[in-house]
Every structure is written in structure tokens, then in C-alpha cells.
Amino acid sequence: MKSALALLTIIGTALAASQKPLGGPIVDAYLGPNATALRAHALELMDKYPLIDTHVDMPQILRTLGRRPLDMVDDLDKHVPGHVDIPRMKEGKLGGLFMTVYSPCPNFIGQDPGPDFLNPLETVRDNIEMFDLIQNIVDEHPDTFAWAYSSADIRRNFANKKISALIGIEGAHTLGNSLSTLRIYAQLGAKYLTLTHICHNAFASSAGWGKGFEVTPIHPNNGLSDFGRALVLEMNRLGMMVDLAHVSWEVMQDVLDITRAPVVFTHSGAAAVNDHPRNVPDYILKQIGSGKGQNNGIILSVFYPIFIGLDRATVGRVADHIEHIASVCGRAHVGIASDFDGMYSSVEGLEDASKYPQLIMELLDRGWSDDEIKGVMGENLLRVMDAQDAVKESLKHEKPARDIYEKRQDLPAPWGGEDNKYLPTEVRKVVHARRQRDEL
Ligand SMILES: [Zn+2]
């Protein structure tokens, strides 16, 4: 949930920030007498290996705070309301982040997408503005950020003490029902696309908002549409990771049945730990792993209190999700995704971007080895990125998908005026002949 709730986040965090100091004290509260040693160990690991967060909604905060969002970009050096700014990213030793290109589902902002998603909307414009905002964020802070499109970029940036900046798109409702848009988004640097947000779209079925906010199924078996299958295969070809956060469980299965690359769940928990439709059920988790016939993907564990469980929304509960996912998929198939600035509250011990070390401390306290933690922090994700890039290389002989959403009524384009009188005579004749033939 975003936009409207972002305001609550801002107010809530501003209050919290004035009342509670960042850093040390909370460590003692959560991890007892070993806290000092665990913290030293965690920080040492984070100096050696990058921690990559695959879902950070900070750009929408800048867009929420000001009528001219680019004016807010400079402020990132200072405190920005919400969960994320540069001082807190540095305190939390963040190695890289996927910033989210996001514009809301139409129903979330009172717009009607129409029964076939054909009503005109501004999601493509808004997404382009979000790309532009993120480009400004990175380019205005070159001492902090460096662009990354591959694991090699991330390693190089980390060696240069820069935070890697990557882009993920949240929700295929922002494609304007078009694979052309997908290809241009890929050119703009998007490394993943979440197939839905909280609404269904022409490609795939959503998990909705969760309990009490279920969405009525529209696609066959509440899964992918045929056009959605074309989208997945085209993403494989483009080297864009298919993100299964937010989608229905049926879509998760449909994608696993056809994808040619590892999948990612960029901000999800385990349904066995907290029974919620946004989380991943065990029957899906069992298909992710390093074994024969399994998808070599990754589940990046979210910090969102509603998903991890409101009854105990703590750093320990986030670790419970990580450990459950790891117990089914293996420790090489789990990672970290905060959803910072995309949620109106946060968990105790992981309140903002300065607190990542506390999750590492929690895993150390539970006996995870340095190698395993290195994987959770980022190496597991880098492996998936490498695998996705290898798939792209292997598919470079394929031509771009030509599929057009079958419900679209704007093609062939009626752009020639009345009876196409503004087009060359030959074109007019061909179109006229075709129309007569179609009417027969
Ligand atoms: Zn989300």
C-alpha cells in the first residue's frame, strides 16, 4: 500500500525520529549480552560483502513530498521523512538497492481501468517520470551512488565504496498493455518487473491487498493470461528478472511452468510463518532450489509488518521467515528486501535503512555461517542475476515478441483522418480494399 499511506508513514516516522535515537540501544534490547560482539562481526562482514536490498520505494516519497519532486533530490544528503536517506543508508552499510519505478493501480487512486484495462491512464507517463527521478537521484549524488546493471558492476562499485543503484518496476499495469513499453523500460535500465501490484492487469492476476481485500479472479484459473505468457518469455529474452511478489499463487505456478530463467520474489515472506496471500506457500517454495528440475531463483524476504505477522513484527520474525524459506529452498535461495518507504509502519529492530546490521546480527546469533550470511546479503542474488544474464545471452538469436494485446481496439491506427485523406493515395487504397474485404 502506498501513496495515501505514505503520508501516515511520513508523520509517523517524523514523530518516531524525534523520540528514539538511532543505533546502539536497540541492539542491547534485542540481542542481549552478545550484542557488542555480534555487531562487530556483522559490520566486519558488511565491510567485506555488499548487502543488496531488492525493494526500496524511496523515490515515491520524493514524489509525495513535493510538487516538484526533482527539488527534493538534493535533500537526500540530509534527513528525508520516511525510512531511507543517504545518511541512514551509510549508517546501515547498504551496498546496493533496487529503487522502485512505481505508479499506483488505477483503483487505488479512484480511477477505473475498464473491464479490459483499456481506459486511458497516466501510468506510462508517471513511470517515465519515476525513471527520470531515479536518474536524477543517482546523478546528483555521484559520491554516494553508482549505476549497476550486472553482478560485475555491483562488485566494482562496492570496491569503490559506492552504493549500487538498480531499478525495478512494480506492476505490469504500468506497461500500457504493451510489450514495446517493456522493451523501452528495459533500455532505461529496469532489471526486474513485478508482474502485478495490488490489482489484476492484462497480463496476470494479483494477490490483492490481502485478507479482506481479495480481488475477484478474471483470468483463467486466476493465473497468467496468454498475453502474460508472452510477457514472461519476452522478459527472459530481455534479461529482465520476473518478479513474483504481489502475484496470485496461481501466477507463481504458471510462471514457474514456462520461465526460461530463475525467478525472483523481490519482497515476500513465507506463508507457513504467516498465512497471508502476499507470502509464498510451501508448494511453490519447494520448486525453488538448486536441485534437479528446480528453479534456481530466490526469495528476498520482506520487512513489511502485515506480511511477516502483526502479532510479532520484530527483526526476529523477519529472520523466522528467512529461516523457513531457507529450510525449504536452501540457504542459497534467500535474500533481503525491506520494502522501506512502501509501508506505513516498520518492524522493531529494522525501523529504517540504518538498521540492516541488526538482521545480520540476528542471523549470526542463530548460527548462520559467514558464507551463508554473505549469500543472504547479496551473493545469492548476484548468482541469480548472472544466471538471468546468461539466459539473455543464450536467447540473443530470438526476435522481439510481436504479440499485441488482443483486446486493444486502436490498431491498425486510425491516424489518417477521415477516409485516410491525409495519407498517400496508395496507402488509402490498400486500407480501403482491406476494409471492404473484412466487411465481406
Ligand atoms: Zn510491493
UniProtKB/TrEMBL annotation:
The lineage of its organism: Eukaryota, Fungi, Dikarya, Basidiomycota, Agaricomycotina. The keyword Signal applies. Residues 398-419 are annotated as: Disordered. Gene3D superfamilies: Metal-dependent hydrolases. It holds the Pfam family Peptidase_M19. It catalyses: an L-aminoacyl-L-amino acid + H2O = 2 an L-alpha-amino acid. Residues 1-16 form the signal peptide. Belongs to the metallo-dependent hydrolases superfamily. Peptidase M19 family. This is Dipeptidase. Its cofactor is Zn(2+). InterPro entries: Metal_Hydrolase, Pept_M19.
